[in-house]
Amino acid sequence: MHDPFLHDASGTVAWLLSLDLMQDYLLRAEEELTRPHDPKQRNIAKLTWTDSKSALIELAYAIQSAGSLNDRKASLREIIEGLQAAFNIDLGHYPRVFQEILSRKTGYTTYIDRLREKLLLRIKIIEEKYDPK
Known about the structure:
Elements: H1 10-34, H2 39-42, H3 53-66, H4 76-87, H5 94-102, H6 110-130
Helix pairs in contact: 3-4, 3-5
């Protein structure tokens, strides 16, 4: 009996389809292995720093100076490494950039000052919106 759907290439096609299915399975398995196991970390958005590197370095130095992490025990290096990982950026030789920050004629904390201004503006807009005058 001759099946009209079978021909000499059927075995090859079936083999290629099985390889394709195996590749999909392996890619999903690899993703499961590399994804964090902690359910809280699975939904963390991937963030990319889009401001200047010097702005993030200024922020890192401020965070370390304020002792905001690890009960005031986080080193500058740990903070820089954490920010680099969190924001998908390489900050390079950050001490050199900090030296450039110290030589600014316009002030040392331009990024932090800008953050403060933007936050105060946001608060002002909210207050005006909800102020029952």
